């Protein structure tokens, strides 16, 4: 069994979710309140290690009222256990699970275990199917996937995403190296992911699109 997965992101009108090496606010205040309300509904929030290294996010519910106990479990996909021990996601505001592969340095994993729960899935990069299976057995029945673009691609490739919500901020970023909503090696034109639109909503100067994923 796998947890239900909603991929939520914000992108510019030209499809970028960030520049190539820094984070930026793309959607407005009310969209961020929507995201934090969503966080409250999910058992886990998942991101790739580059998002932690670049953004140093909190991944807690901090834009709306919330008790500490209501924070979802933060899940970081980090094959080599590169996560810095002073990352905000390793503070005690919420539980954290770091998913590594068996190639991760054993000493780094031992140090990490003092800060959070560590699970090992896969031999090179994290085996995402196995990881979601393990997370389900640990009681994580729903996951809010919050990027970045490399993890988004792999999660689509493994057919692990059930639903997508993408907020289009009224901005243009451009740039050959800016991250797009989904990067990775890309799909062949015959294998592209098909979506079914569920809702279109205007939130201030942003547009929120909601889709089901059709595999
Ligand atoms: N606007 C928005 O909504 C959001 C924007 N962002 C932006 O996205 C950017 C980061 O995106 P990106 O650089 O693509 O990195 P990701 O956050 O997607 O992290 C990717 C890394 O995850 C690790 N990983 C482990 N296993 C897997 C696997 N099976 N498949 C894929 N990745 C795996 C890899 O590192 P390793 O092999 O070392 O484990 C990989 O390089 C940041 O600039 C951030 O600001 C991020 C989230 C939301
Ligand atoms: N939904 C959304 N809109 C934006 O404009 C964003 N920049 C992001 N970024 C994601 O949120 C993380 C920051 O979370 P905290 O506020 O620190 O808890 C960031 O790392 C991205 O995953 N999302």
Layout of SSEs?
Layout: E1 4-11, E2 16-18, H1 29-41, E3 44-48, H2 49-55, E4 73-77, E5 96-100, H3 106-113, E6 117-120, H4 128-137, E7 142-145, H5 149-157, E8 163-168, E9 179-180, E10 194-203, E11 206-214
Parallel strand pairs: 1-7, 1-8, 3-4, 3-7, 4-5, 5-6
Antiparallel strand pairs: 2-9, 8-11, 10-11
NADPH dihydro-nicotinamide-adenine-dinucleotide phosphate binds next to β1, β2, β3, α2 and α5.
What does this molecule look like?
The chain is an alpha/beta fold. The chain has one domain (4-214): 3-Layer(aba) Sandwich (Dihydrofolate Reductase, subunit A). Helix content is 22%, strand content 28%. It is built from 5 helices and 11 strands; from the N terminus they run ββαβαββαβαβαββββ. A 9-stranded mixed β-sheet has the order 6-5-4-3-7-1-8-11-10, sandwiched between helices. Strands 2-9 form a two-stranded antiparallel sheet. A hairpin with a 2-residue loop joins strand 10 and strand 11 (206-214). The protein is globular and about 45 Å long. NADPH dihydro-nicotinamide-adenine-dinucleotide phosphate is lined by residues 9-10, 17-18, 23, 26, 47-51, 54-55, 77-80, 82, 125-126, 128, 146-151, 154, 179, 183.
Total discrete domains: 1
- Work out the helicity level: 10-25%
Please name the CATH architecture. 3-Layer(aba) Sandwich
Give, in spatial order, the strands making up the sheet with the most strands: 6-5-4-3-7-1-8-11-10
Oligomer: single chain
Main β-sheet, in a few words? Answer: 9 strands, mixed
Q: What's the CATH H-level homologous superfamily?
A: Dihydrofolate Reductase, subunit A
CATH topology: Dihydrofolate Reductase, subunit A
- Per DSSP E runs of 2 or more residues, the count of β-strands stands at 11
Main structural class: alpha/beta
Rg (CA only): 17 Å
Determine the mean pLDDT: 97
Coarse morphology: globular
């Amino acid at each position: 069994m796998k947890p239900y997965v909603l991929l939520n992101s914000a992108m510019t009108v030209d499809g970028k979710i960030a520049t190539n090496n820094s984070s930026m606010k793309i959607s407005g205040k009310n969209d961020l309140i929507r995201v934090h309300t969503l966080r409250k509904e999910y058992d886990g929030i998942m991101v790739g290690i580059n998002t932690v290294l670049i953004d140093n996010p909190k991944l807690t519910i901090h834009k709306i009222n919330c008790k500490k106990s209501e924070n979802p479990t933060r899940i970081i996909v980090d094959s080599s256990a590169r996560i810095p021990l002073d990352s905000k996601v390793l503070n005690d505001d919420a539980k954290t699970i770091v998913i590594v592969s068996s190639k991760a340095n054993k000493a780094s994993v031992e140090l990490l275990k003092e800060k959070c729960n560590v699970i090992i899935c896969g031999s090179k990069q994290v085996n995402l199917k196995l990881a979601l299976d393990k997370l389900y057995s640990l009681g994580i029945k729903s996951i809010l996937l919050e990027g970045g673009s490399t993890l988004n691609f792999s999660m689509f490739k493994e057919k692990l995403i059930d639903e997508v919500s993408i907020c289009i901020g009224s901005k243009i970023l451009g740039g050959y190296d800016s991250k797009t909503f989904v990067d990775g090696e890309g799909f062949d034109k015959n294998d592209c992911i098909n979506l079914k639109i569920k809702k279109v909503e205007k939130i201030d100067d942003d547009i929120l699109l909601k889709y089901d994923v059709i595999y």
